[in-house]
Amino acid sequence: MPILDRQPALRDLLHDAGLRATPARLAVLRVLHEARAPLTHSEVVARLDGGRWDPATVFRNLVTLVEAGFVRRTDVGDHVWRFETRGEPDEDEADHEHAHFLCTECGEVTCMPQLRLQLPRGSRVPRSVRTRDVRIQLQGLCDDCV
Fold this sequence. Notes:
Elements: H1 7-16, H2 23-34, E1 39-40, H3 41-47, H4 55-67, E2 71-75, E3 81-85, E4 99-103, E5 109-112, E6 137-140
Parallel strand pairs: 4-6
Antiparallel strand pairs: 1-3, 2-3, 4-5
């Protein structure tokens, strides 16, 4: 069962990271967890209980959750930050890196988990190279816009 489906465990993880499990923070995580693709700040605000949360509070929580490692922030090439939850805390983060497709006509973003890029172990790369983030971004027309 994913960690976000276990509210008490999620509260413990937030506390372990030095964060309070506030209603706003839990609501933001829930919205991101239920989304099928990364969401912009305004999309998160729109999906929260009828706009009951202040947009500035939502943004601060998104930034805090990114800094704490619960959420990934990405730009799919349109200069708009989008947010999505990361994988389980005990799983290898490389297992969760995936491509995103941006429709250049309608702006729809789609996760493409079947497309992954990972350096094989033992690859000959300079020792000073430490991969922190892998991003694959595809752009084109979605099925609806073709």
